[in-house]
UniProtKB/TrEMBL annotation:
<dbReference type="InterPro" id="IPR036979">
    <property type="entry name" value="CM_dom_sf"/>
</dbReference>
<dbReference type="GO" id="GO:0046417">
    <property type="term" value="P:chorismate metabolic process"/>
</dbReference>
<feature type="domain" description="Chorismate mutase">
    <location>
        <begin position="1"/>
        <end position="86"/>
    </location>
</feature>
<dbReference type="Pfam" id="PF01817">
    <property type="entry name" value="CM_2"/>
</dbReference>
<dbReference type="InterPro" id="IPR002701">
    <property type="entry name" value="CM_II_prokaryot"/>
</dbReference>
<dbReference type="InterPro" id="IPR051331">
    <property type="entry name" value="Chorismate_mutase-related"/>
</dbReference>
<protein>
    <submittedName>
        <fullName>Chorismate mutase</fullName>
        <ecNumber>5.4.99.5</ecNumber>
    </submittedName>
</protein>
<dbReference type="GO" id="GO:0009697">
    <property type="term" value="P:salicylic acid biosynthetic process"/>
</dbReference>
<dbReference type="GO" id="GO:0004106">
    <property type="term" value="F:chorismate mutase activity"/>
</dbReference>
<dbReference type="InterPro" id="IPR036263">
    <property type="entry name" value="Chorismate_II_sf"/>
</dbReference>
<dbReference type="InterPro" id="IPR010958">
    <property type="entry name" value="Chorismate_mutase_highGC-bac"/>
</dbReference>
<keyword id="KW-0413">Isomerase</keyword>
């Protein structure tokens, strides 16, 4: 059935997304460790603004808001993870 095929494709994409998310968080952990050692703050607003602007420019216009929401969530989780590293 065509719907099953499409859902299989979605499942595969979700696996890839989660794999990339874990990879991003592993790099974020290294950034958090560096900030801890250097006494730097977690938040870098300029960097976040640049990431979101680049995301909006990369996708079709009708997906701009969704792309920013997706990356904003990844960034929020990234900051929370780094806060844990700085506390620990
Ligand atoms: C990862 C960093 O820490 C924070 C999280 C960011 C992110 O997840 O992309 C970007 C900027 C910072 O607010 C960083 O400073 O590069």
């Amino acid at each position: 059935m065509e719907l099953d095929k499409l859902r299989e494709e979605i499942d595969q994409i979700d696996r890839e997304l989660l794999s990339l998310f874990c990879r991003r968080m592993a790099v974020v952990a290294q950034v958090g460790q560096y900030k801890k050692e250097q006494g730097l703050p977690v938040l870098n607003q300029g960097r976040e603004d640049a990431i979101l602007a680049r995301a909006r420019a990369q996708v079709p216009p009708e997906m701009g808001d969704a792309a920013c929401e997706l990356l904003s969530t990844a960034i929020r989780l990234s900051r929370a993870y780094q806060e844990e590293i700085l506390r620990g």
